[in-house]
């Protein structure tokens, strides 16, 4: 497609937490400033189509339908109006390396949307980044994504429009490696998220606050404070400085708050593969299982050889662990008082799962 001249962005954020937004805004500026040269490769150009053909693939097709629509999330009895693909998170999409995903996205929002397949190496016109790789999916319209998923790994998907990924519009995309030897008995998909939508504000409200400059007053030494939905001067030694700009009242694990935690059950002694995804917009998480050592096996789908990690937007960990009395996920930020918990009870001791919380 030929990118049409884009409207001038009304903001340009460079804070880490809004990286996706800022990349989109930078691309928009670039498009507005330069008329596309005739010899540029277009997102759906012959070169892209040729590369996809050369990938070959298995020919096996997995289909999915994602309907983006307003919904209400149950947060331990409290309700939060949000936007989601049915549930939060969306049902896992799983296929084998080299298989083709055909995903129809229906937009029942009163806003443009798209779906970006985070981390996946895929044909450019299916990357879901309006207005660069496609035009936005308008309200009431739908779009058919179709691409080969070449590399095994733990990926996820979310819109690449505005701050929609900070709502409930996300889910896991898992590409299995048919050649992998395995060596584990179970697999848990764990999606971490920082949450405010429908509780304290909407992500668009917060973006308006940040755009007004209230969240960009770092450099106050050890001082930090909350102002509205933004943070000033929040720092983290672990992160080496800035710990984010947005106040989140909740951290969710697979769409569940601490008062109604997601629960996994593992048998004593078995090995479990954890597929961990950080869907948070402005939060890095530390993740631990009490009394156990996590072994990082892969990040971003590729083998990795270290023993500890902070899960951030650039490092997904497929951790494998011996099981496990409980697991905690908590943010390292200096102003994040609420930890979440995944309660796990060995099946040999079917007592009520324990929930573990620690003060920050
Ligand atoms: Cu992403």
Describe it:
- With 360 residues, the protein is mostly beta strands.
- It has three domains: 1-34, no CATH class; 55-176, Sandwich (Immunoglobulin-like), CATH 2.60.40.420; 182-360, Sandwich (Immunoglobulin-like).
- It is 9% helix and 33% strand.
- The protein has three helices and 22 strands.
- The structure holds copper (II) ion.
- Residues 20, 116, 118, 158 line the site of copper (II) ion.
Report Rg.
21 Å
Q: The CATH topology of the largest domain is what?
A: Immunoglobulin-like
Low-pLDDT segments, ≥5 res: 1-33, 306-360
Strand content: 25-35%
| Secondary-structure element string | HHEEEEEEEEEHEEEEEEEEEEEEE
State the separation between the terminal residues, measured CA to CA: 50 Å
The CATH class of the largest domain is identified as Mainly Beta
Structural class: mainly beta
Secondary structure tally: strands: 22
Q: Into which percent range does the helicity of residues fall?
A: under 10%
Give the full name of the CATH homologous superfamily of the largest domain. Answer: Cupredoxins -  blue copper proteins
The CATH architecture of the largest domain comes to Sandwich
Which small-molecule species are bound to the chains here?
copper (II) ion
Q: What is the mean predicted local confidence, pLDDT?
A: 77
Strand order of the largest sheet: 14-9-16-20-18-19
Shape: globular
For the largest beta-sheet, the strand count, sense and barrel status come to:
6 strands, mixed
- Number of folding domains? 3
Q: Helix segment count? A: 3
């Amino acid at each position: 497609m030929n990118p049409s001249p884009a409207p001038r962005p009304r903001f340009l954020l460079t804070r880490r937490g809004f990286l996706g937004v800022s990349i989109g805004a930078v691309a928009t500026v670039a498009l507005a400033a330069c008329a596309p040269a005739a010899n540029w490769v277009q997102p759906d150009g012959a070169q892209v189509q040729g590369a996809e053909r050369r990938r070959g693939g298995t020919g096996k097709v997995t289909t999915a339908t994602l309907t983006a629509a307003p919904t209400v999330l149950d947060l331990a009895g409290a309700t939060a109006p949000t936007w989601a693909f049915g549930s939060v998170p969306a049902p896992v999409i799983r296929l084998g390396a080299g298989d083709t995903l055909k995903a129809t996205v229906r937009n029942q929002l009163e806003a443009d949307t798209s779906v970006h397949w985070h981390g996946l190496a895929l044909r450019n016109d299916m990357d879901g980044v309006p207005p660069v790789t496609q035009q936005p999916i308008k309200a009431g319209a739908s779009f058919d994504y179709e691409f080969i998923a070449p590399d095994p790994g733990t990926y996820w998907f979310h819109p690449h429009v505005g701050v929609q990924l900070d709502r409930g519009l996300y889910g896991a995309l898992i590409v299995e490696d048919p050649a992998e030897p395995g060596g584990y008995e179970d697999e848990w998909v764990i999606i971490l998220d920082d949450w405010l939508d429908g509780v304290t504000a909407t992500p668009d409200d917060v973006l308006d606050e940040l755009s007004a400059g209230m969240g960009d007053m770092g450099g106050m030494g050890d001082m930090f404070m909350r102002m509205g939905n933004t943070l000033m001067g929040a720092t983290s030694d672990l992160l080496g400085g800035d710990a984010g700009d947005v106040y989140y009242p909740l951290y969710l694990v697979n769409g569940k708050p601490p008062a109604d935690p997601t629960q996994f059950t593992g048998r004593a002694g078995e090995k479990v593969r954890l597929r961990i995804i950080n869907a948070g917009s402005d939060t890095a998480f530390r993740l631990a299982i009490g009394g156990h050592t996590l072994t990082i096996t892969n990040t971003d789908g590729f083998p990795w050889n270290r023993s500890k990690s902070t899960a951030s937007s650039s490092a997904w960990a497929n951790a494998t662990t011996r099981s496990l009395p409980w697991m905690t996920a908590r943010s390292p930020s200096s102003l994040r008082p609420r930890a979440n918990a995944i309660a796990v009870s060995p099946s040999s001791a079917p007592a009520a799962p324990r929930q573990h919380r620690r003060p920050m």
